Amino acid sequence: MAKLKDVFANKLPQFQNEIKGLVTKYGDKAISEVTVTQAYGGMRGVKAQVCDTSTVSPETGLIVRGIPLEKITDRCPEEMFWLLLTGELPDADSLKGLQADLAGRADVPDYVFDVLRALPKDTHPMAMQSIALVALQRGSKFRKRYDEGMRKQEYWEACLEDSLDLLAKMPALTAGVYRIRYEDGKLIPRDPNKDWSANFAHMMGVPDPTGRLADLMRLYLNLHADHESGNVSANLCHVCGSALSDPYYSVAAGLNGLAGPLHGLANQECLKFHLALHEKFNGVPTAEQLKEYAWETLNSGRVIPGFGHAVLRCTDPRYTACHEFGLKACPDEPLFKLADIMLQVVPGVLKEHGKAKNTNPNVDALSGVLMYAFGVKQPPFYTAIFGVSRAVGMCSQMILNRAIGTPITRPKSVTTEWIKQQVGG
What we know:
The chain is mostly helical. The chain has two domains: about 90-260 and about 380-405, Citrate Synthase, domain 1 (Orthogonal Bundle); about 265-375, CATH 1.10.230.10. The chain has 19 helices and three strands. Helix 4 crosses helix 8, helix 5 (about 110-120) crosses helix 8 and helix 7 runs antiparallel to helix 8. The longest helix is centred in the middle third of the chain and has 28 residues, at about 155-180. It is globular, with a radius of gyration of 22 Å.
């Protein structure tokens, strides 16, 4: 049985030598240029950092370590973590070993939940998740070893240890947020017979007689684990970690970015749209009714959430995976039927409207609908679930950056006056 640390350590010289060779031979070669629009527009499209865990192709969607996402949607998040870090999937015995390792690290200290209980009852779940994660920082092995004088070559090992501890605790920590924020505050112990995802659903305490919520959670946590490093959460984690902040601080920074309405709240907006439609038509509308409503929405200057993507120009493969799950698990659920009609109607309306670059649905069009269908009816909590998943990718990228010695992130900023002089304005 292979251990994750050993597999990564064996792969590391290959990763390091490849990067060193590229920098040595092609270090002066330009790979991007920046326009004035990009400088003022959030650096959209500027190629300025490296992420080997995954990439987003406009034509095919998310590619994880060279594997199109649609080929690994049946995997669990623990396998995804192994793949992101090493570039290969674990065998059955190695997966069991990793799951056992995570289970042994899963207990969250009682003081963390005491901190959460001391917060005002209406504290947002994302604030609670971030606070809980920072509260765990006192146990950081990276910080302790750094204070003791750790060698740079050992940074990745301490980062891996912290990441395994952090990821192991994220389900119980976040389920605790759910229990304290929305239920009676009584925590549900983890089940030693369940995997990482199923335990998260189990500890939330949402009734799941068919086991479908656990299946949905496994799919959701797998699909949202990684999405390049330029998105807000991954980028914030990277910048924070580049200062050698430990994984607790760095992932918390990423979670705080994920909490923004323009990043992690999209599935909530989609669900609100579905619920409003269902209420307006007192049920599932017909295709013609939906078409009229879509035009009314667009003509009023509003958008139809869940369609289009900043990078993709194809149907999001994460949407496809969620749609296939819904067809098997809840084809007669009213909100899913509504989403299905939207799939048939909205792309055509958007094409005729002519302003959208991508008229295909993205994952947010369905993920919140499915969570709601299987009993998680608190939309503000959806982003916290997203956070559990995205921590997998953030930790993977951080370990790799520690291993290859990525320096502190410090881009040069310029003034508007400087830009005016450069362009002759």
